[in-house]
């Protein structure tokens, strides 16, 4: 068996990236770790997030992977540089691809970034945007109430709409034409977010952009899988197996689910 693409996340949010990978690269084998036992990463200290992310990457490196995708924005912000310096395989984060898509979409070079406290405090999106367009203006907003709303399953509710409206209020004084959903969970709130931003604002979610980068890097390194017989992805969780399995099943609708537990 050839080594798969590894995907790591703080929990189940990274399944949004897996879904896009399965769509665009159906022949690629995938192994995923979700650190459900220690989710969320958003409010944690940088050093802790670095250590947890390194543990997940090491666990996959031991199993053998040809490439790593850090599907979590908070983990990418804290640990991408460290991991790139440490591991020999190519590593893709979710921040650079989202930043690139945003500067391409924006006509005014004024971009809003929504993310967890960890992602916003890191300044990683500002850095990535400024590397591409030095004169861009970046308006970052931490939205700490968003992940709990999604994880409580209320993301479609009127309550969710109210929380989104309140959280986005500081952006009313700000001019921007593009907003980045800088967190795995926010695409589930996209409808509410769009509703409480000016109608002309373009919303960017990074999952699709990230998979473009994966495709490019596979090709560049000549490590694509050429065989077309499908292989089913393998999912590991550090948390409760049954809950994890039901979210994977619900989100990905795969017929043969291989879900296991792992200790880091
Ligand atoms: N969505 C997320 N996390 C959860 C959840 C959810 N519970 C319901 N929904 N729980 O993230 C996190 C806690 N752990 C506990 C241990 O097991 C795993 C989960 C967003 C997922 C994005 C892919 C709502 C829900 C769902 C299925 C699909 C999508 C979704 F049940 F938002
Ligand atoms: N996966 C995280 C992110 O994209 C959100 C959940 C968490 O805080 O761990 O930032």
What can you tell me about this protein's structure?
With 264 residues, the protein is α/β, with parallel strands linked by helices. It is built from eleven helices and ten strands. The strands form two sheets. It has a six-stranded parallel sheet, sandwiched between helices. Helix 1 packs across helix 10, helix 4 (95-105) packs across helix 6 (124-132) and helix 4 (95-105) packs across helix 10 (206-220). It is globular. The protein binds ligand I24 and D-glutamic acid. D-glutamic acid (DGL) binds at residues 9-11, 13, 39-42, 72-74, 116, 119, 147, 183-185.
List the helices and strands and how they pair.
Elements: E1 5-9, H1 15-24, E2 30-34, H2 46-63, E3 67-70, H3 73-86, E4 91-92, H4 95-105, E5 110-115, H5 117-122, H6 124-132, E6 137-142, H7 146-151, H8 158-168, E7 178-182, H9 190-195, E8 202-205, H10 206-220, E9 234-237, H11 241-252, E10 258-261
Helix pairs in contact: 1-10, 2-3, 4-6, 4-10
The structure holds ligand I24 and D-glutamic acid.
Percentage of residues in DSSP E strands: 15-25%
Shape: globular
Question: Please, what is the average pLDDT?
Answer: 96
How many structural domains in the coordinates? 2
Give me the CATH fold name of the largest domain.
Answer: Rossmann fold
How helical, in percent, are the residues? 40-55%
The number of distinct β-strands equals 10
Q: What kind of sheet is the major sheet?
A: 6 strands, parallel
* Distinct compounds present: ligand I24, D-glutamic acid
The secondary-structure element order is: EHEHEHEHEHHEHHEHEHEHE
Broad structural category: alpha/beta
Q: How many alpha or pi helices?
A: 11
- Main sheet strand line-up: 4-3-1-2-9-10
Q: How many angstroms does the end-to-end distance come to?
A: 24 Å
Instruction: Give me the Rg, rounded.
Output: 18 Å
> What is the C-level CATH assignment of the largest domain?
Alpha Beta
Low-confidence stretches: none
- What is the level-2 CATH architecture name of the largest domain? 3-Layer(aba) Sandwich
């Amino acid at each position: 068996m050839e080594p798969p693409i590894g995907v790591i996340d703080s929990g189940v949010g990274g399944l949004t990236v897996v879904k896009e990978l399965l769509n665009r690269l159906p022949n690629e084998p995938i192994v995923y770790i979700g650190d459900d036992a220690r989710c969320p990463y958003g409010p944690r200290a940088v050093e802790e997030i670095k250590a947890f992310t390194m543990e997940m990457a090491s666990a996959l490196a031991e199993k053998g992977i040809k490439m790593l995708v850090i599907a979590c924005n908070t983990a990418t912000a804290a640990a991408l540089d460290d991991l790139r310096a440490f591991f020999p395989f190519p590593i893709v984060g979710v921040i650079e691809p989202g930043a690139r898509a945003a500067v391409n979409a924006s006509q005014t070079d004024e971009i809003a970034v929504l993310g967890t406290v960890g992602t916003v405090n890191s300044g990683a999106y500002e850095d990535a945007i400024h590397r591409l367009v030095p004169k861009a203006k970046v308006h970052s907003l931490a939205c700490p109430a968003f992940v709990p709303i999604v994880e409580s399953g209320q993301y479609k509710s009127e309550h969710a709409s109210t929380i989104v409206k309140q959280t986005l209020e500081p952006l009313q004084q700000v001019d921007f034409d593009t907003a980045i959903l800088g967190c795995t969970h926010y695409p589930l709130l996209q409808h509410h977010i769009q509703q409480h931003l000016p109608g002309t604002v373009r919303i960017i979610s990074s999952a699709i952009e990230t998979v473009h980068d994966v495709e490019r890097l596979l090709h560049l390194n000549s490590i694509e899988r050429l065989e077309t017989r499908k292989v089913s992805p393998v999912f590991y969780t550090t948390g409760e197996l049954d809950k994890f399995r039901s979210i994977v099943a619900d989100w990905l609708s795969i017929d043969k689910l291989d879900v296991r537990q792992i200790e880091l």
